[in-house]
Structures are given as C-alpha cells and as structure tokens.
Amino acid sequence: ICIMGDGVIMAQGTPSEIFAKKDVIKECGLELPVSAKLADSLRQEGVPLPNGILTKEELSKALCELLQKI
Q1: pLDDT, tens digit, for every residue of 55-65?
Q2: 58/42 Cα distance (integer angstroms)
Q3: What number of other Cβ atoms are within 10 A of residue 25's Cβ?
C-alpha cells in the first residue's frame, strides 16, 4: 500500500505497517479503520491488546483470547 500526499509518497508498506504510522495517516486526511481505533482506545485504558489490529475479526480474536486468560 502507498499513501500519497501532495503528489508525494508519504508512506509505503503492508497495511499493518501503514496504519501503525498514525501521524502520517492523519496528515494525509485519512482515518484508521474502526476496529483499529477501538483497539487503540482499549489499549489506552489498559487492555493488553497486541499492536496491528485492523479488522473486526482480528479484534474479536484478540478479545476472545484475553477473556480465555481470565
């Protein structure tokens, strides 16, 4: 994936690599996927989720794994 801004390549890589660069995403006027935003919010509240969550399937899998540990 490539992200362009003002005719210049701002970032290039896999979806996980690209969406990890939140400052570049915002600078280019893009938004994180909803699942990634929710995962970030949960991490900020202390929920130990792995980085790189982009899809609802990845988020639900990570949450189910956490619940199994409780």
Answers
A1: 999 999 999 99
A2: 14
A3: 18
